[in-house]
Structure formats: C-alpha cells, structure tokens
Design brief:
heterodimer; A: 200 residues; 2 domains; 3 helices; 22% helix; elongated; B: 431 residues; mainly alpha
Chain lengths: 200, 431
C-alpha cells in the first residue's frame, strides 16, 4: 500500500508510449489510404493516342478515348464556325481567358479554341459534374434554346456549350470544356496527349 | 428443465440475462406510443432483411466491370429464386429510406432530439449518413449506365472542392474514371466495412436510447414523473415493459409493413422505374450519358440542391456545400431548436407552420430532383411555360424554405418568441 509510486515516471511512460503508439497507428494507415490511389496498370492507360481524321464528315463528331476520358473531335463546317463569334455575349468566358486547371493549352487559346479552326478537339466532359454532353451540331431551334447555333447540351444538369466548348451563361457548369494537349502528325492525323512543342 | 439450461448459461454468461432484461423485458417505454413509433423497429427489420438477402446476393455476384452486370442478370434469370432475393434487397433499400424519413420526421416533430437525447439523435443522423453511403455503393454494383453515371456525378461532387478536389476524386475512383478498382472497392465497402459500421452504430443508438429512455408523443419525461406500476414500485408509473407490450404492438406494424413490401416485391418490383431504374438495365458505357438522368428517388431532394446552386467565383463547389449543409444542419438541430417544449402538441403556432413548410420544401425539392416538375409545370401552367426558368425559381424558393426553417427555428427558440401551450404533468392515456 505505502509502496513508493513514482507518478512522474508513470505519467511520462504513459504519455510517451501513447504518443509513439499513436504515430505508429497513423503510419500504418498510410498504406491503406495509398492503396486507393491509381495502380500502376491504371497509370499505364494514360499514354497518348493517335486518331485519323479521314472519315469524319463536315459537321460530324467522332468520340475517341484518351486516359479513359471521352475525346470529342468535330469537323466544324464554315457555317458553324461563322456562328461562333456571334455567341460571345451569351458566354461566360468567350475569349478563353481562364487558364487555370488545364482549361486549354496556349495554342488553343483563340476564338475557335483549336490549332486549326476546322477541327475542334475537346475532353468531352461537362465541367459541372463530369457528364458527357450530347452533341447537338445542327443550327436549329431546340427546346432548351430557340436560337440554338449548334453546340453541346448536358443531359445531367442541362448545361450548354457552343461549338468551341465554351459554356453559356446561367447554367450550372462554371467553365468551358477542356481542350487536351494535341498536335497534328500530318494533315489527317492527330495525336492526343502531346502538344506540338512537346513531341519528340 | 428450462431453468436448468438457464442456470447453466447464467453461470457462464451472466451478462446475457441482464442485457435481455435491461433492453427488452424490463425496459419501460412510455405507454402512449402511437403509429409514428413503428418505424424504429421496422428499420431494424429491414436492416436484417438487407443483411440476409445481401449475403445471398454476394454468393452469386461477381465484382469487376467485365462480370458485374452479367452476374446480376444471372441472379435475376438463372439462380433459383435469385429474382426474389434481389428484389427483396432492392425493395428493402427503398423502403428503408421511407422508414428512415418518417422515423426522423417523428423525432423532429416530437422533439426526441432534445436534451437528454442529443446523442441518440447524433448517432441516428450518423446512421442516416452511413445508410446513404451504403445505398450509393450498392447502387453502383450492378454496373448499369445509371451506376456508372451516379458514380461520376457523386465523385465529381468531391472534385469541386478547391485544390484537393481533383486528387480526392482520383483517390476515390483509383483512376481517372470509375472502373474495376472503383467497383471492387465499393463492393468491399458495401458488404464489409459499411455494414459493420452500421451494426455498431445501431448498437450505440439503442444503448444510448435505453440509457435515457424513449420520448413519446407528449414529450413528457416518464422517468421524472411518479414511480410505481404493477411490475415494481421503482419503475415509472407511465411506463410499460417493452416486451411483451411493444414487441406485440410492433408485430402488428410488421404485418402491415410486410403486406406492403410483399405487394411491391411480387407485383411492382421496379415500382414503375422508381426503385429499379430502366436505364440501369443497360450496361455501363463511359462514352454515353443516358438522355434522361435522375438520381434514385431518395437522393432526389439533395441532388436538386446541387442543380439549383449556380456556379460563381469560378467554382461549382456551392452545390455540394448546400447539399452537405442541408444534412449538417440536421446534425446541429438539438442546438438550433432549444425550445423547452418537446412535442408539437404543445408548441407555438410558428413552429407548426415552419415544420409544415419544411416538409413541403423537402417534397418540392424531391419533385425537382426526380424531374417530376418537368411534367407537373406544363400540366399546371400550360405547355408554353419557360421550364428552365420556373424550375430554377421554384427550386431556389424551396431551398430558401429548407434552410430558412433552421434560421427561423434558431431565432424563434433562442430569442424566446415561441408561445407554447402548457405541457401536462403526465402522458395522456389516449394519444
């Protein structure tokens, strides 16, 4: 009963063992958290892809994939291109001034958001919550917009984009659709994932 | 004979009888429970149904994007009684939400979240969140188009968080899109981690409840009232033992509930596309978003909030903030509504009106989230109505009403504006 208890030592040992044990437990959770990161095989799907443009008719869209993301490639007609500047007042960011978060490479920061005006290349994901917007290329009145000049309509939350992937005002999506890095291998072949300057 | 076995067990496991007494045969619950008090035991029943049917589904389900969809079709067509087991599971999921919504509403209405039951309420809300996670991960497993797009949309909610969002999204999916890794980890969460957490929380929820005792439609604390009933002089006079009184009462509820559930399972398994969606009978395609996308009905009110919030300051994070805020405010309810009177029966008119508006707002948001306003508005106001504009106006009004409820309640009770009616000394015999 009256044995001497060194309370200071006991407290010191309790605190230090708890602290070291706590650090150990936290360290042990790291592998479990990191096991959720993309695996090596998931990373391997991120290589660039090459796509021939030969069979895309004027006004037509082709969807391919890069990094498992849908890539829209549109062969824009002169009429569709001519309608683009007219949309500017209705757009959030008509001049692609937003350069954050890989909005578009510098070489696609222009009125058509492309290297060649004819070819529109986009990551086909709505910037709201990443649905795949539907291509509505025809310039005809639509239920959601009587003055529709062609573009994209997202079925999830009804965001709308023009034919340069530029987002309209008053929709849930905040930003234009992203333009991936790409370059033309030759006149009818495009490589997505690598920009013109980065190519070997 | 029985007593010999009992004695044998008692010697080796002395806590068992004590636990049964404490939680069942000698748990004294107020004698004035009404219809609203069926939903707790029904939630437990459905949870049991989900555990049993879910275990049997897992015996034939094959996670993985190449096999998941086909294995669900296999369960529905080839496995003996597979269709029944799966339909019981899917119907159970939807009915669990019906039950939880009513159970939660009951607690709000009768002030069951108030002191001394704050912890019971917090554990209940935590259960609600885990059930939502369970429902979402389960929704993904059949790997139909809706499974895929629901994952995209939900993960994108996290991706809207500034700076860490995109990394968080990639971490959740284990890649840039929902794929094998995503489906397999959701399966593990759905069948192991979340159910264990759920059971653990249920035990805590009930233990915490039995510690403070059940509330009742009059909001009177029977443990503070007179003592002594026919079972003992220390028990609350207005309490009756849970077993056999409420077990038998609950059995009646179970009977009615099973009648409804069996009707759905056998005659309306998809519930006209509300419990099982048509789009989800098509295999997931990462390149094709279904034309008419809507969340499953129990998430529609929360989803509507995401749809109604505009993007500004270059980010879409406001929608997810509103959505999580709508649930976070419910967690905080015991500290927002500090009115001393518990039950709606004796509360001020302002409270009754506010609660009514709150329920209407929730239903209104559900209508928007499930796209029903697209049908309802042209029918009510003519086909020429500007649907986008009026849905937005209606939805934002409903959101204001939803959040306004909490603001009003805070001011109403903290500033003492509420004019309550006198609360009786003891519970009334007839509710």
């Amino acid at each position: 009963m009256d044995e001497y208890i060194n309370r200071g030592r006991r407290r010191f040992l309790t605190v230090t063992t708890s602290a070291v044990g706590g650090v150990g437990i936290i360290a042990t959770t790291v592998p479990f958290f990191q096991s959720w990161l993309p695996s090596a095989s998931a990373r391997a799907t991120e290589a660039p892809v090459t796509q021939s443009l030969k069979k895309i008719e004027p006004g037509q869209q082709l969807i391919t994939t890069w990094r498992n993301l849908p890539i829209f490639i549109v062969n824009r007609t002169p009429k569709q291109l001519a309608a683009l500047p007219g949309q500017n007042p209705r757009l959030v960011d008509p001049d692609s001034k937003n350069t954050s978060a890989h909005q578009q490479p510098a070489y696609a920061q222009n009125g058509t958001r492309s290297i060649k005006p004819q070819w529109l290349i986009l990551i086909g994901l709505c910037t709201h919550v990443n649905c795949v917007p539907t291509y509505k290329g025809q310039m005809k009145p639509e239920p959601f917009d009587p003055a529709w000049q062609g573009g994209y309509y997202c079925p999830c939350h009804r965001s709308r984009y023009d034919l340069a992937g530029r987002v309209y005002k008053d929709v849930p999506a905040p930003k234009n659709m992203q333009v991936p890095p790409y370059h033309f291998v030759d006149d009818t072949t495009v490589q997505i994932g690598v920009g013109p300057k980065d190519k070997a | 004979m029985t007593s010999r076995w009992r004695h044998w067990l008692e010697e080796r496991l002395p806590g068992l009888t004590r636990m049964i007494r404490r939680h069942v045969t000698a748990y004294y619950a107020p004698k004035n429970f009404n219809l609203w008090y069926y939903f707790g035991s029904l939630a437990l029943l459905v949870l049991l149904n989900q555990l049993v049917t879910g275990s049997f589904l897992a015996m034939n389900y094959k996670p993985g994007i190449a096999t998941a969809f086909d294995s669900v079709q296999y369960i529905m067509r080839d496995v003996n009684w597979g269709w029944l087991i799966r339909t019981m599971h899917t119907t159970g999921a939807s009915l669990l939400f019906v039950i939880i919504f009513l159970h939660t509403f009951r607690s709000i209405m009768y002030g069951s979240f108030k002191k001394p039951r704050e912890l019971v309420w917090l554990l209940g809300m935590l259960l609600f969140v885990v059930v939502m996670a369970e429902a979402f991960t389960g929704y993904v497993l059949p790997w139909g188009t809706m499974s895929f797009w629901a994952t995209r949309v939900v993960v994108a909610l996290f991706a809207t968080i500034p700076v860490i969002g995109p990394h968080l999204a990639e971490w959740i999916m284990g890649g840039s899109l929902p794929a094998d890794a995503t489906l397999n980890r959701f399966f593990a969460l759905h069948v192991i981690m979340l159910p264990l957490l759920l059971l653990f929380l249920v035990v805590l929820h009930l233990t915490a409840l039995h510690e403070v005792g059940s509330n009742n439609p009059d909001g009177v604390e029977i443990r503070c009232g007179p003592k002594g009933n026919r079972w003992g002089k220390h028990y609350p006079a207005d309490g009756i033992p849970f077993h056999p009184y409420y077990t038998l009462k609950d059995l009646v509820g179970v009977g009615v509930f099973l009648l409804v559930a069996a009707y759905i399972v056998f005659f309306a398994p998809s519930f006209d596309g509300w419990f099982l969606e048509r789009n989800n009978a098509v295999m997931a395609d990462p390149l094709l978003t279904p034309a008419h996308i809507r969340p499953v009905w129990y998430f529609s009110a929360f989803y509507a909030m995401v749809r109604m919030m505009p993007s500004f300051a270059g980010t879409a994070v406001w929608g997810p903030i509103a959505m999580s805020g709508s649930i976070a405010l419910l967690f905080a309810l015991p500290w927002i509504d500090v009115g001393p009177v518990k039950s709606i029966r004796y509360r001020g008119t302002g409270y009754k009106v506010a609660l009514g508006i709150f329920v209407l707002a929730f239903v209104g948001l559900m209508l928007i989230g499930s796209n029903l306003t697209d049908v309802l508005f042209p029918w009510l106001f003519g086909a020429n109505i500007n649907l986008t504009k009026w849905t937005m106006i209606f939805g934002r009004t409903m959101m204001l009403a939803y959040f306004g409820f909490f603001v009003f309640l805070g001011l109403y009770t903290h500033l003492g504006w509420e004019k309550t009616r006198p609360v009786p000394e003891r519970v009334r015999a007839r509710g």
